[in-house]
Amino acid sequence: MNAYVGTPTSRVDGRAKVTGTAKYAGEFTANGLVHGFVVAATIPRGRIARLDTSEALRVTGVLDVLTHTHRPPLADKDEAWMDEVAPDEGSPFRPLYDDNIKFNGQPIALVVAEDWETAKFAATLVHVEYQEGAFGTDLEAGRDKAIEVQGPHKPRGDAAGALAGAAVRHEADYFIPTEHHNPMELFATTVVWDGNGRITVYDKTQGVQNVHKYLCGVFGKKPDDIRVLSPYVGGAFGSGLRPQYQVVLATLGALALKRSVRVVLTRQQMYGLGHRPATIERVGLGAKPDGTLEAVAHEATAVTSRYEDFSRNDSGWAEQLYRSPNSRYSHKLVRLDVSTPCDMRAPGAASGVCALECAMDELAVALKLDPLELRLKCYSDRDQSEDLPYTSKQLRECYARGAEAFGWSKRNPTPRSMRDDKELVGWGMATGVWEALQMPVAVRIVLTANGHAEVYCAASDIGTGTYTIVAQVAADALGLPIESISVKLADSTLPQAPVEGGSWMAASSAHAVLGAAEDIRRELARLAKTMPASPLGGVDAADVILVDGTIAKAGDKGRAVSIADAMRYGKLERIEKHKLNHFAEDKSHARNTHSAVFAEVKIDEQLGVIRVTRVVSAVAAGRILNTKTGRSQIMGGVVWGIGMALHEETVTDHRFGRIMNANIAEYHIPVNADIHDIEVIFVEERDDRINALGVKGLGEIGIVGVPAAIANAVYHATGKRIRRFPITLDKLLA
Amino acid sequence: MADAANQIANRIPTNLVVNGVGRTLDLVPWTTLLDALRDHLGLTGTKKGCDHGQCGACTVLVDGRRVNSCLTLAVMKDGAEITTVEGLARDGALHPLQQAFIDHDAFQCGYCTPGQICSATGLLAEGHASDADEIRELMSGNLCRCGAYPNIVAAIQQAMGQP
């Protein structure tokens, strides 16, 4: 019974969000709450020579100033600081741990005062002297010092030789700058002091249990001493996967003062958190004159910090998309004096596929082939790295449906050939790909005799719609109206869930709900069948379903018992089932989501102003649990892709190792006027193998390919190939 | 040299009519209207996204006009009528814009949403927007990082009675 799954159900948390009652981490309060304000380092590397807090401490209302020499104890072993998604290599950052400065913007003191204004003011009176060290923050200047780390796939054949001997060849560097997530909500933590060393932590995080385990390790606490909640998260996009430093500082403050403490970062301070690493993507493609690929060589050189090696799969995605007998995919890191990069929407793929798809466009131009025709010519039905078929791959259909909706067949291939009045018109396309991941998740469902069910899970909803899809799946599985389902998420005491990321939470949480609901169905079926004169007496338990608030025979709703009657008969007020769902291991097939993206740009040639007037994104991602919120997620990904193509860049003055646009006005993200028509097409993709519902996840796939489609459209409009992102008007006019 | 640590100003009594209810606060002069609402009145529906007038998350209506409350000192609005997102629904019935935002899924994380809705309320009162292009332009002071812009435009059009 699917009354809700697959439908455009409105968000169940919509009312809370439009009325302002949804509470975010920095909005919880407590008796005697005090406020912390962070003092951040202004050099990228060195030591704190002197830290004078005396003047700040004299301000009326200031309670304490915590520093590396004046704070409660912190763990001294790296293992304690390693969270669930920490890089394997390196030592995680420890805020206020010692006098070492590892990056500009590193927190060096926390001023705690009775009110926020006082703390903010007093923070200006903390005086710091540094012993500055030699530093580097420039990827391109450090490229020759790059170290090779493990690449995404083993090489196949002889890519270098095949590339050198190819009839048609394209090789180029593409530069992706540092980007920051900039969720609208400022990073914040409110620690409520419960007494006797116990605390309740409201944190902006994508994983409450990750933060819980981390805090227990860092502060040497027992699991029962700490509870972490994040009922609403004002966007995160990867920035909340790892515990961020404000949660450590707020906890330090609470332990030091034995009071409730709130710490909210400023927008500027958030540029000291993680980021999408600046990356030089070198792509080489070699082909026969008919477009058959002979070689793919993709080498990514990315920034990491000096204290952790962060790397993702940037370079390996051609392995999923394009048939080639020879391939080499490698990843290099340049260790610089910056904070460790972290996952940012479609980490690796957003950057790497951008370069790959620009390169494919350039190869198509060199071959005098239509860019879409080239992709179809090289289409791979197998994941070449492991030589595996896919659980499902409707990418051909994405190309066809997207091209038709966009009107691709009307494209004049010659650059600068299309105009609209004074504007040049360009049409470009690209492919998107991401992984269809799934993780163990547990839920608890409590069904009460009045026909209401509560679903509990530690997973977060960061705007992705987890509350809503969990309610939809539970309502269908239990045969109840969605209004009778309450969903409680993002509390570390609830059944286990990993961080919300990687596009895995929809499939993972939905199947946990199915598992717990199945246990409830079985128990209700057993009860109903044993009732005196039960209409389900002779019915096989496997044929009993839950529908319309009843326990009924499948296909014969007339033979039914109400849930309330069955529970009354069994003298049950409630049925509670806890289920940890594991997905069966299946190494026989590759699992991916795909998209075909078509973009139109209009460019004022005199001013170089670029408008993205149309984007069509055709997505194949298995079953779409909610076509309304799912469409929004893809649309949001497209907006991110527009930002990546045209707007977003964290600019560092490498002479000072300092970010120059650490605010949300000079770090440009798309505004409403930048966004025009976006059409999302969900291509039907039935997948019986990946999981019971055939769900793959949507969080990342929406952005992948979009920057390249726009860059390719800019080339088509102007004849200029800009390989250094973002494509700004100065680069077009140069 | 004067001791900077002792330069905290005196508090100033400030009267605000917030969502129809008169409130009196004793505020230091640098308290923004945003912090007065969130920290002093517990009205956390109004959001802080940048504190610099760059994102619009803090948009409220002051005497019917939309303003960035983070750029507004509370003491300068003595006597003003303030409407926040908490004041839009009437007797449990959502404001047409609130309903339209739900209908069109005009948000994801929800953090910019109160500012978007207050800004759209001001926009409708101004009467300058007649089509989607003008809505886009006049709503561009309100950032949405989730990228719900097309749905926000559609929601505003619904509230304007446009198809």
UniProtKB/TrEMBL annotation, chain A:
User: What InterPro entries does the annotation carry?
Assistant: Ald_Oxase/Xan_DH_a/b (IPR000674), Ald_Oxase/Xan_DH_a/b_sf (IPR036856), Ald_Oxase/xanthine_DH-like (IPR016208), AldOxase/xan_DH_MoCoBD1 (IPR008274), AldOxase/xan_DH_MoCoBD2 (IPR046867), AldOxase/xan_DH_Mopterin-bd_sf (IPR037165)
Q: Which SUPFAM superfamilies match?
A: CO dehydrogenase molybdoprotein N-domain-like, Molybdenum cofactor-binding domain
From which domain of life does this come? Bacteria
GO molecular function, a single term: iron ion binding
Q: Which intervals hold domain Aldehyde oxidase/xanthine dehydrogenase a/b hammerhead? A: 19-134
PANTHER family given in the database record: DEHYDROGENASE, XANTHINE DEHYDROGENASE
Tell me what this protein is called: Aldehyde oxidase
Native organism is Bradyrhizobium neotropicale
Automatic annotation (TrEMBL), chain B:
Q: What is this protein called?
A: (2Fe-2S)-binding protein
UniProt signal peptide:
none
- Which is a Pfam family this sequence falls into? Fer2
Cross-referenced SUPFAM superfamilies:
2Fe-2S ferredoxin-like, CO dehydrogenase ISP C-domain like
Q: Quote one Gene Ontology molecular function term.
A: metal ion binding
- Would I find Protein biosynthesis among this entry's keywords? no
Q: Which residues form the 2Fe-2S ferredoxin-type domain?
A: 12-88
